[in-house]
């Protein structure tokens, strides 16, 4: 009886430890990073993606993103402890010691690079590694606590996954992956500032100069609007002049883009409206997810056949 209780407790604490390490990686953000990687791989392979390669690339990407997020949790432990929203994270909550988290982050980073270098190629490994370094050094260390442009420049880290995906398929980079990079780069300010409008008091409390804290709500919603105005045309560059995607993607990108602009415009008219800010933040995630899905579907050979048949039917 005593032994079985002991074993139970050991299991409980083992489970709790694993959960804490899992939480260090900020796991809810990773799927969307992977979706952008996968979409890029589908376009690069013209709809004929090699499934083992896809699996290894997504695994390597997961390890790299998890490493980056863990390093961020170590560096930001002081402010994470101060903010209500982040106080329960494993390091401020005292569940994981920073030096153990550091070992964990280094292991994840090394595993990621090794996986890419051994099974995919060195370029994709270096790109994933550059994502970790950029997010940690440029965003977290250099910009986050020093400038209101922190997430504009820092957003480059989150825009790297499509480069990784493209390099994994082709072994190099061309215009298309850079357009995907630019699309996510421009998408990041509306995504994050909409959220920052809701949690600006948290950031103000720990002196992190997020735009709504420094410049106020009106300036922030204007900036959100200008970046949204750029996101939509950039999403269409994949159709023209790049000719990578066709009519199906174009239609979906225009409908989603229209909704993005409506939501950004509504927020611009009512800068203090938390519901509109929350709505835009949530929609930004939905937007990128669906846009990537449209890229995948449009690039499939079966879609090309269907579109060609429809054209013949309609145009004769
Ligand atoms: C510098 C760039 C970015 C910043 C500063 C940022 C910031 C944030 C923050 C603070 C949250 C709330 C997370 C929380 O409550 O713990 C969040 C949520 C989220 N972010 Fe971003 N983000 C950035 C870029 C990205 C990118 C590139 C992606 C994916 C392509 C992404 C995907 C998400 C998703 C999916 C969520 C929702 C997670 C949930 O369900 O709670 N973010 N972001
Ligand atoms: C290729 C590769 C490895 C890319 C990784 C890039 C990456 C980890 C992007 C995530 C960006 C993000 C969610 C930032 C959160 O900001 P924050 O940490 O300032 O938010 P907080 O206020 O919640 O701490």
UniProtKB/TrEMBL annotation:
It comes from Synechocystis salina LEGE 00031. Carbon 2 of the heme B porphyrin ring is defined according to the Fischer nomenclature. It is found in: Cell membrane. It comes from the Bacteria. Belongs to the UbiA prenyltransferase family. Protoheme IX farnesyltransferase subfamily. Its EC number is 2.5.1.141. This is Protoheme IX farnesyltransferase. Pathway: Porphyrin-containing compound metabolism; heme O biosynthesis; heme O from protoheme: step 1/1. Gene3D superfamilies: UbiA prenyltransferase.
């Amino acid at each position: 009886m005593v032994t079985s209780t002991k074993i139970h407790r050991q299991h409980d604490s083992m489970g709790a430890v694993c959960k804490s390490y899992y939480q260090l990686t900020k796991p809810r953000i990773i799927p969307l990073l992977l979706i952008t990687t996968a979409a890029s791989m589908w376009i690069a392979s013209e709809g004929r993606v090699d499934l083992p390669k896809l699996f290894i690339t997504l695994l390597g990407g997961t390890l790299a993103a998890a490493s980056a997020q863990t390093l961020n949790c170590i560096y930001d432990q002081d402010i994470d402890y101060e903010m209500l929203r982040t106080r329960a994270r494993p390091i401020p909550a005292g569940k994981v010691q920073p030096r153990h988290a550091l070992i964990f982050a280094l292991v994840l980073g090394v595993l990621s690079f090794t996986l890419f270098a051994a099974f995919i190629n060195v370029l994709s490994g270096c790109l994933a590694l550059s994502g970790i370094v950029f997010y940690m050094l440029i965003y977290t260390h250099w910009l986050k606590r020093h400038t209101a442009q922190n997430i504009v420049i820092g957003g480059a880290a989150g825009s790297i996954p499509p480069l990784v995906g493209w390099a994994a398929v082709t072994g190099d980079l061309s215009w298309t992956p850079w357009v995907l990079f630019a699309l996510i780069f421009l998408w990041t300010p509306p995504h994050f500032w909409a959220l920052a409008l809701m949690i600006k008091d948290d950031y103000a409390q720990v002196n992190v100069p997020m735009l709504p804290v420094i410049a106020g709500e009106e300036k922030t919603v204007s900036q959100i609007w200008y970046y949204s105005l750029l996101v939509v045309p950039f999403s269409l560059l994949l159709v023209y002049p790049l000719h990578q995607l066709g009519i199906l993607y174009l239609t979906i990108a225009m409908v989603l883009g229209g909704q993005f602009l409506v939501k950004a415009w509504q927020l611009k008219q009512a800068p203090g409206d938390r519901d509109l800010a929350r709505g835009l933040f949530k929609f930004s995630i939905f937007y990128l997810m669906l846009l990537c899905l449209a890229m995948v579907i449009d690039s499939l050979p079966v879609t090309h056949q269907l579109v060609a048949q429809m054209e013949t039917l309609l145009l004769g």
